Amino acid sequence: MLFAGAALVTGIAIMALVPWGKGLARTDENYYTVILNGNEIGNVSDVAIAENAYAQARIRLEEEWKDGVYVDGTLSLVENHAWRGAATEQNILEDKIYQELSKSVVDVQQTVYTLSVGDVSVVLSSLEEVAEVVDSVKDIYEAGDDYQTVITESDSERFGTATCELVQASIEPENRPMVMASGDGTVDESGNAETDVVSFGNDIEIVETYAEETVSVEEAVSMIKDALQVVSVKEETYTEEIAYSVEYVYDDSMYSDSSEIVQEGQAGSREVTAEVTYQNGVEIQRNVLDSVVTAEPVSQIIKVGTESRPEFAFPLSNPRISDVYGPRWGRMHWGMDFSCSIGTDVMASAGGTVVEAAYRSDYGYTVVIAHDNGMETRYAHMSCLLVSEGNAVSQGDVIGLSGNTGDSTGPHLHFEIIDSAGNRINPADYLYK
Known about the structure:
Blueprint: E1 2-3, E2 14-17, E3 32-36, E4 39-44, H1 47-64, E5 69-71, E6 75-79, H2 90-104, E7 105-107, E8 111-117, E9 120-124, H3 127-141, E10 148-151, E11 179-182, E12 198-200, E13 204-210, H4 217-224, E14 230-242, E15 246-255, E16 259-263, E17 268-279, E18 282-295, E19 300-307, E20 321-323, E21 326-328, E22 331-333, E23 336-339, E24 345-347, E25 352-360, E26 364-370, E27 376-385, E28 392-393, E29 398-402, E30 412-418, E31 424-425, H5 428-431
Parallel strand pairs: 2-6, 15-19
Antiparallel strand pairs: 1-5, 3-4, 3-6, 5-7, 8-9, 8-13, 10-11, 12-14, 14-17, 16-19, 17-18, 20-23, 21-22, 23-30, 24-29, 25-26, 25-28, 26-27, 27-29, 27-30, 30-31
Helix pairs in contact: 1-2, 3-4
């Protein structure tokens, strides 16, 4: 069953059914019984006679049916060696084919509209459905009733093209109708919306044609929603943050790995008016139309040290040396003593790993730190330990509080530096570098 557009096209196939495996060699002894829709309508001695009779009958039907119709028919030629009667004349066979085909003509004329967006096409039953589909897709990305879809129809007449076998549906009209959207639903003489607030980024073609089947509005929306480009241009006003700058002030009284925020930074703000373009709800372009600063940013000021940190630093923030390394009272004093009140912060002289944090009868509460250079430092007579064995510490970290524990004559901190060979050496050789 085939469809015809403005002219009739039948779905009739001319076939020769040859019994006994014989071919269709045209000899004087070959006769063919002509069968149309199962009815014998004559006999011919030449296939061409049946073909010509069929063609003339079709032309007569085309002249009568100017609109789209369906014709359901099957024409076959069966070779008949037993036939010895007179052949059916071509004009008589034409009349019989015409009468038989007329019985199977069914008028199914239906004007439909093919909506094409890019490579996607859908067939709908009315222009109202076309508008509803486009509106529904638009509403996915631009919801609301502010914009009405307007369809501009072309002036071309109803379209249909046919061959003897089938009708082609994808036809380009001379004047392509376009679908546009505008603020008030009006379209100017050029076919463009008066306001380019909402439009479509690709061409939308609507072709009037004929078809047997159409799709529903819901199906059409699902099929074209990704192909249709809904473009909206909006003027937006918003507040934008202005990042603050950072300024550095250098201080030679601080170590180079130390810093201090002198003034906190504060972001500023500006009011921006921009023209923003969206495609299917996703921003694709932003043009700033105006920008007014509403609050100036406040710079952050950071003080940064420039002094190189010593390999070993004093273990107290305000060191007061009460005894030095060397012989004392008839024996060797293996470290440096710092006078301080009980509870003063004791700091790591250099970074490293705590290898001892315990109480000893001679040193009292003691911490020993192993450093990366293979040397160690010892801090003795503390009242409280704030680290444990295995802790990693950095130079300047508080590791305990000074005290008067162990073999001590008064509140102080005893400090030692031990070289990689295990020898206790003079701390003054390192603390003053």
